[in-house]
Structures are given as C-alpha cells and as structure tokens.
Predict the structure.
Amino acid sequence: MKIGIIGAGFTGLAAAHALQKQNHDITIIEKDGNPGGLAIGYKEKNWKWSLEKHYHHWFTNDTFVLDLAKEINFEVLIKRPKTSVFIDGSNYQLDSPSALLTFSKLTLIERLRMGASLAFLKFNPFWKPLEKINASTFLPKIMGKHGYELLWQPQLVNKMGKFATVVSLVWFWTRIYKRTPQLAYPKGGFLSFAEALVSTIEKKGGKVLYNSEILKIVDDKKTNVIFKNNKGEEETYEFDKIIVTLPSYLFLKITPQLPDTYRNSLVKLQGLGATNMVLRLKKQLIKDGTYWLSICETPSPVMVVVEHTNLMDIANYNNEHLVYVGNYPSTDSEKYLASDEELLKMYDPLLSRINSKYKEYLIDYRVFRTPFAQPIIPTNYSKIIPKFKTPLPNVFLANIEQVYPWDRGTNYAVELGQKIADISTA
Ligand SMILES: Cc1cc2nc3c(=O)[nH]c(=O)nc-3n(C[C@H](O)[C@H](O)[C@H](O)COP(=O)(O)OP(=O)(O)OC[C@H]3O[C@@H](n4cnc5c(N)ncnc54)[C@H](O)[C@@H]3O)c2cc1C
C-alpha cells in the first residue's frame, strides 16, 4: 500500500520503519527542515554533536527506543548522573533511597513515610485503579503534608501551573514507576539518531519530504493530502492510508470536514507549551555536578535547570557548558510570550542564586519555544483518550496524547509508531 505519514517525529519515523518491514511504500511529509519533532536538535559552530532544543534523555528501561537503536546499530551511552532539588538556596541530592534517608529537610519519620509512599508507587504495576484519584489530594495524605509541600507540590505547580490540581495520580505514578537512576543518550544527539532512522528508511525506498506543511486532508473517493512543498507551492499526493502524528489540535486544523461530535471530543484535550533557554557557558553552572535540578520553590520563575554537560562530555560541544532553563507555560502566558531578553531578566535572580558568577561565564543564550509539549492527564483519562481510528476511513491518528498510561516520551512515540503500523494495515 501507498502510505503517507504526516510528521517526522519519532512516532512517524518508527511507524515508517515498521511499515517498510511489511513492504509498504512510505512517504513522510514534515513541516520542519529536519527530523526529530519535539526531540529535534541543532548545532552551534564548532560543536561536534547536536543538542536538543528541549532537554532529552532516555531511561534504561525505555526498551522500545533502545531496541530500535540496537536494530539500526546506533550507539547509546549510559550514565548515572546526579539529580537534586533546590530548596532555600541549596542543592540536595535526592535520587536514591539512601539519599532520601539522609535528607535533612525532613524528620526521620517523614523520610520513612515519604520512602514508603514512593516505594508503593515504584512497585505497584496496576495503574488503572489510580486513574480515578487526583494526585494533589492523594499525595499529601500518603506522604504527609510537610513532605508533599516541600518536595512535590512545588514541582507539580511549577510544571503544571493552573492544571496542578487537575492531574491524576497515574501521571505522577509514571514518573516514579518508570524512572531509572541510570540514563541513556544517543551518541551524537537525538538529531543524529533521527537522521540515522531517516537514512534507514530512505535506503529501503521511503521518501521524506522536509519543509513541507500539510494544509488539508481530503478524503472523498481518494485519500489525498494537500501540502505546501519546499518551494512554497501547493501539491497534492494520493495515498491508500494516512497516519497523522500531529497533536490533536493540529489534526483538527487540517481536517475541517470532521463531524462536530468528534471535533468536540478532541477539543476537550488540554496541554501546555514549553520554553527552554539554552545557556552556553565557559564554566560549569551547577558546581556539585547535578544534571537535573528541580526547583522546589513557589512561586518560581523556573521549573527545572538541567546542566546537559553534567551528563555528556563538554568536549562534544567545543568545551562549552550547556544548561537548559526549562518551563511549561501555556501559550497565552507571560512566560511563553516574553522576549528572550525578558526571560533572562525573569530567570536572573534564580540563576544568580545557583551560581553568582554565571553572567561572567555566559557566552550566549537561545530560547526555544514549542506550543504543545505536555498533554494534561486529568482523572479518568482513559475515557477521553483519542482513538487511533478517525471518522475518516483511511486516516489514522497516532500522537503524543495517546501513549497513556505513560507520560509523553520518545520511547512511547516509538512504541506508538510500531502499534499504528499494525492497526493502520490490519
Ligand atoms: C521540554 C520537553 C522535554 C522532553 N523530554 C523528553 C525526554 O527527556 N525523553 C524523551 O524520550 N522524551 C522527552 N520529551 C517528549 C518527546 O519529545 C515526545 O514525546 C516525542 O518526541 C513525541 O514524538 P511524536 O512523533 O509523537 O510527536 P512530534 O515530535 O511532535 O512530531 C510531530 C511532527 O509533525 C510535524 N508537523 C506539525 N505540523 C505539521 C504539518 N502541518 N505538516 C507536516 N508536518 C507537521 C512537526 O514538525 C513534528 O516533526 C520531551 C518533550 C519536551 C517538549
């Protein structure tokens, strides 16, 4: 069959790779100039490796993506970085049971209670009963109010903003259940990995059209897509089947013919955007070597500070120290709309508390924004999760809002891509 895939993120690339194993003829149509979607990377002059516009790593149990890397002989590096929380101006390493046991901000009883609560989530594989429960009301009850308010409430509020009181316990559970202390990272960056996948797809005769934006899917007698090609001209391609990997709100934009009942079910789904400021520094920002620093203060201008070069070697980036300053604002908020300079001004007090000399070290900075980065998972999400089959008979939807119970991630994008390959051709 002739199958069109919209989007060269990891869902689209994995779907293409899987469909080629069934001998289908694949064309991927991608708006951007490169593959990788939300995990896309870029390169500054003199860097050997690319860097993701938004911080990315894998966990060592991300088997779908790690198996795919193995299959195409792509080298993956495994590291055990330091994860800490920032409270009252200090870093506290908090990434193992023993670190929790010696965490001086909680009493021994509170630490034991927190440990028992996290162990319950870590070793409980049954997510379904948890989806009825609201995270922000349940967690203080099991962890204790003080522990929750010190560690988790600030993280929930800094990440989810106005949705902090809406998310279900399943969303929180995935973060404890699925995370590993060791992390994995594709050698050369996620862009190199995506390019390696594209080259595997192209070697088997697949086509990837970049700088080509789908404007409309037309599904009357034939299934056509109308897109603006890399010369800015409108083109129409005809396919037997189409797999759309865009978030639901973008899917609706290219399918105005969908019935209202279906449209309304997708409009209900909510999400947050993301901004990441990448600082290029002459020296290390987080001196204790922490890779992931969650800011446990509210209100905070920043959710997380991620020093990428405390995970990967600075030699790959012309000896520059690279730091993400990350947030998940909604697209109508000040943090999303602020200029780069305004954002740095907003972040400056916090960054100065982390390292008072950071401005002396600053070579340059860039800000990356993306409008849909984090689906909101309210209670009973399984009742509103979009279906793979759409009202258009030959058009299938496979996107970031369908990897439930898991939270978004390239591993789940790969799993989803493989799943939709089977569903769309069954
Ligand atoms: C801040 C942040 C941090 C993250 N951290 C991690 C992490 O550490 N580890 C991890 O594994 N995952 C992480 N993720 C999640 C991960 O990036 C996503 O889950 C995954 O990349 C989703 O892939 P996808 O292919 O489903 O969607 P996308 O990557 O969104 O792909 C959709 C593609 O469609 C294209 N497109 C959009 N509109 C059109 C159009 N009209 N025509 C043609 N093409 C179009 C887009 O350009 C894009 O390439 C993070 C995401 C963010 C934002």
User: Anything to note?
Assistant: The radius of gyration is 22 Å. The chain has a mean pLDDT of 97.
